[in-house]
Design goal:
This protein has helices at residues 14-23, 77-82, 84-104, 139-151, 181-192, 210-222, 225-228, 244-254, 277-280, 290-302, 314-331; strands spanning 3-7, 27-32, 47-51, 67-70, 109-115, 127-128, 160-166, 168-170, 194-198, 204-209, 231-235, 241-243, 260-264, 273-274. It is an alpha/beta fold. The relative contact order is 0.13. The structure holds nicotinamide-adenine-dinucleotide. Nicotinamide-adenine-dinucleotide (NAD) is lined by residues 8, 10-14, 32-36, 53-55, 71-73, 75, 90, 113, 115, 166, 168-169, 175, 177, 180, 314.
Length: 342
Amino acid sequence: MHTILVTGAGGYIGTTLVPLLLEQGYRVRVIDRFFFGGDLLEDHPALEVVREDCRRLAPEHFDGIDAVIDLVAISNDPSGEEFQTATWEINHAARVRCAELAKAGGAQRYILPSSCSIYGFQPPELRADEATATNPLTTYAKANERAEQGVLPLADEDFCVIVLRQATIFGFSPRMRFDLAINGMTFGAWKEGRLPLMRDGDQWRSMVHVRDAAEAQIFMLTAESDRINGEIFNVGSDGNNYQIGRLGQRVADRVPGDVEIAWYGDPDHRSYRVCFDKIEALGYRATRTAEDGVDEICAALENGSTDRTIKTITLDWYRALRDWQQVVRDTELDGAMLDIRG
Ligand SMILES: NC(=O)c1ccc[n+]([C@@H]2O[C@H](COP(=O)([O-])OP(=O)(O)OC[C@H]3O[C@@H](n4cnc5c(N)ncnc54)[C@H](O)[C@@H]3O)[C@@H](O)[C@H]2O)c1
């Protein structure tokens, strides 16, 4: 594997993954609309940047590509509900088409980073493994599941297809997201001494550090095809299966200063704990703890390299882009604003 195509590379996972790939000597072509800014990936001689919509992928995007990591998505439940058509087009249809184009273009491997959210609600005594019946509750989770179902049948002896069901991710990344559980808790606790916690706290959720998630994707680039082809793997670790109330207390204990719990929302209907034995049997380990994430986010907040802005809340940012586009359309004349001539 020499040249890797990464879609959605300007996002939370991608801006952590791409520097790791480059560090390890891969050549990387990235394709993204860069909704969150085009300045989050540093220039590198082995990095090629293509600004394009993944719904318009073409055969030439796959020229010389050995493997694809298909991160692109509308990436959470609230955004998936508000932008349903785009979510189905991007998270499902565009990713299945990407896998088809990759195969036709001669790539040998295709990795779909999916989500443990497709387990939806599971009884608390169960640790969901890859054979557990799924229960996707949201448009986002349903589109991920359809993408899995669309790409897995493409696997054959020349084309290795792997689905990674990632736990909810946490930790610092250049495209920061404070709409993820541990990150949002850490910000509230650090900024105001109030840690936001979704009711009722008994719900189970699995977490994984963003660097561990990126390392799982890189691991799959070289893992023996016979052991992974056509397979689904949960990505995370048993130590990061949490009931949300207890997780909130751990985060509160770790953030410097006094922190109180601020409950919000109606009781959450999603609850699942996940089994990671299958990926661990390959030799992969997710090693970072919630505290590791809390520490690095607090450090980044302290030194000013991150902050909670609308750009770090995925739904708020997509809404803002939609609303600004309307304002521009209503106001511009012949493509110009204050600079019009003649
Ligand atoms: N972050 C998590 O907790 C988590 C957990 C499980 C699975 N995942 C999955 O991992 C993937 C990446 O998540 P993330 O947190 O990095 O998301 P993100 O929102 O930070 O990044 C998504 C990227 O895709 C780009 N994009 C969106 N639509 C596009 C389009 N039509 N064409 C081109 N680019 C487009 C955006 O500009 C952005 O850079 C997603 O598939 C998500 O479902 C994430």
